[in-house]
Amino acid sequence: MSETIGKGSCLCGAVRFIANTKKTSIGACHCEMCRKWASGPYMAVDCGSDVEFEGEENIGVYDSSEWADRGFCKQCGSSLFWRMKQTQQHMMAAGLFDDEPNFKLDHQVFIDKKPGFYSFSEETTDMTEAELFAKYAPPE
Question: Residue 82: which of 100, 104, 67, 98 has the closest Cα?
Answer without folding.
Answer: 67
